[in-house]
Amino acid sequence: MPQFSGLRYTAAMPHAIDVQDVSFGWSSQALLLNHCHLQIPAGEFWMLLGRNGSGKSTLMKLLAGLLLPQTGYVHIHQPVGFVFQNPDQQLVMPTVGADIAFSLTNQGLTSTEVRLRVQDALATVNLSGLARRPIYALSGGQKQRVAIAGAIARHCEVLLLDEPTSLLDPESQQELLANVRELVTQRGMTALWVTHRLEELEAADGAVVMESGQVIEQGPPSQLKHIQEYKLSQACC
Ligand SMILES: Nc1ncnc2c1ncn2[C@@H]1O[C@H](COP(=O)(O)OP(=O)(O)OP(=O)(O)O)[C@@H](O)[C@H]1O
């Protein structure tokens, strides 16, 4: 198993994602994340909520291994795929098929294996037949699904999605949400999805609320006090 400072992979873990006492600051003067703890059960779909600037995206980057914590550990024992808010920041090849195949570079696969993985991944996100479609000719929702297909082609078991629907219209939002729900239910993947859209919680098994760099609550959405408060504040405005 690979082992890096602050990012530890272990063989048998009760949770797909286990964050223990993680602190991180963008500057040496102040910590943004302050002794964060978080556990996401394997094979479940969870959402991460919190006000602007509370540290959600920073935490997601720590989970993906794009940043390393200054103290504490992130334990993840399965391959991780990351889906950015804006898919144009992660789709790098001219066509759909080439982009998914690019994610398999350096995996030592034959061209037949690459082709089969691209086909399987496209079918999983309901984009079969679009392998030759130029990326620029896709809708925003289709681009997000190509990003997810890249993770599926790499056999990622944990999906991290940072506000994946914030640039989408309501119909594409619903399609993406249903697609990720299906990946969790049918393929047993684990997904953690950042959102400000409370209606998306209906698709989730659990939710985590962050405030000022700390996880202040986590559990089934209907039982979280802070989420009820957000709902009430939305209803009256
Ligand atoms: N690359 C960076 N360099 C320096 N500071 C950063 C960087 N990225 C984020 N920050 C700062 O860290 C703080 C938390 O940002 P972060 O994006 O993690 O919050 P967030 O909860 O995801 O917010 P939002 O809901 O608005 O996306 C902000 O004050 C932000 O300016």
Automatic annotation (TrEMBL):
GO terms for molecular function: ATP binding; ATP hydrolysis activity; transmembrane transporter activity. The keyword Glycosyltransferase does not apply. Residues 17-237 form the ABC transporter domain. GO terms for cellular component: membrane. Gene3D superfamilies: P-loop containing nucleotide triphosphate hydrolases. Keywords: ATP-binding, Nucleotide-binding, Transport. SMART domains: AAA (SM00382). It holds the Pfam family ABC_tran. PANTHER family: ABC TRANSPORTER I FAMILY MEMBER 10, SULFATE_THIOSULFATE IMPORT ATP-BINDING PROTEIN CYSA. This is ATP-binding cassette domain-containing protein. It comes from Pseudocalidococcus azoricus BACA0444.
